[in-house]
Amino acid sequence: MRLAQLMNQYYDKLSENDKAVLETILCEPVRFAQLSSEQVAAECHISRATLLRILRKIGLTSFSDLKLTLKEERSDKKAADVDFDAVCDIYHSLVDELNKFSYVHICKRFYESDTIYVYGTGNEQKTLAEEFKRIFLSAGKCVIELFDYGETEFMKKAFQKTDVFVVISLSGETRAGIEILNAVIPTGIYTISITRLQNNTISRMCRDNLYVATQTIQSQVSYELVSGFYMLLDMLFLNYLEYIREAEHED
Fold first, then answer.
1. DSSP category for residue 82
2. Partners of residue 143 on adjacent β-strands
3. Residue 182 to residues 47, 53, 206, 223: CA-CA distances in angstroms?
4. Which of 139, 110, 129 shows the shortest CA–CA distance to 232?
5. Greatest CA separation found in the chain?
6. pTM of the entire structure?
7. By the 8 A CB rule, do 33 and 72 touch?
8. Is 168 exposed, middle or buried (0-12, 13-18, 19+ CB in 10 A)?
9. Of 195, 191, 222, which is closest to residue 207 (Cα–Cα)?
10. Cβ count near 138 (within 10 Å)
């Protein structure tokens, strides 16, 4: 498996420093394939032990495994051009799948809640959480974004059983997300997960689930299309606006 694919597979287990080291190597795979482990570590401004620890995090047992992986990167460098028609087809399929889901029960929870709490497990997920907060604030909902375990522990004293706690995790297996849910669930707050379309721990822990079927494009690098998560937020919000309109019309 190529280094970019390994990095994507184990992304949630990597620290920001780990990612920076691997991205440095990925920028020049041909050159790094010619270096010794000591030289690679020096180029990345880390120790050889730290380098080996990072490699084990992505499933490589030795520096020799890295050398072999970098050779694959080199041999695959002239990858096929991106098939943009295929990418457009993927987007159409994502929208079709998202449109099949009934959002009514989740919109009802949002509508009846005093506060919606949202937590993202990583950088991309926190960006999604910020977007979630932005759009629902525009509809008059009180949305509080939580950034870490300590903040969640402090805020959970204010949780009401009518409130909603939304956790966003690409893999659904992030340790921080699981720990936070273990702290949140005993309060009785209604929990909703947003994850990739796959069986995962976080979705099993939550009372309701939203899924996105992501796709990975193979070209010069392995790239996962995460735009489906933003599509989901759009669909969710538009359905929420429709729910408000119908609820107020009935009143």
1. P
2. 116
3. 36, 29, 10, 32
4. 129
5. 72
6. 0.66
7. no
8. buried
9. 191
10. 11
Query: What spatial distance separates the first Cα and last Cα of the chain, rounded to whole Å?
Result: 58
Alpha-carbon distance 215 to 177, whole Å?
23
Q: What is the mean pLDDT of residues 221-239?
A: 87
- Which helix (H) or strand (E) segment holds residue 221: the answer is none
In order of 72, 130, 237, the CA distances from 134 in angstroms are: 43, 6, 11
* Per-residue pLDDT at 98: 86
Residue position matching structure tokens 């949630």 = 12
AA identity, residue 227: S
Query: To which residue do tokens 């990095």 refer?
Result: 7
3-state secondary structure of 40: helix
> What pLDDT score does 118 carry?
98
Q: For residue range 143-190, what is the model confidence (pLDDT) as tens digits?
A: 999 999 999 999 999 999 899 999 999 999 999 999 999 999 999 999
For the cut 80, the answer to whether the pLDDT of residue 71 exceeds it is no
Q: Tell me which amino acid residue 147 is.
A: F
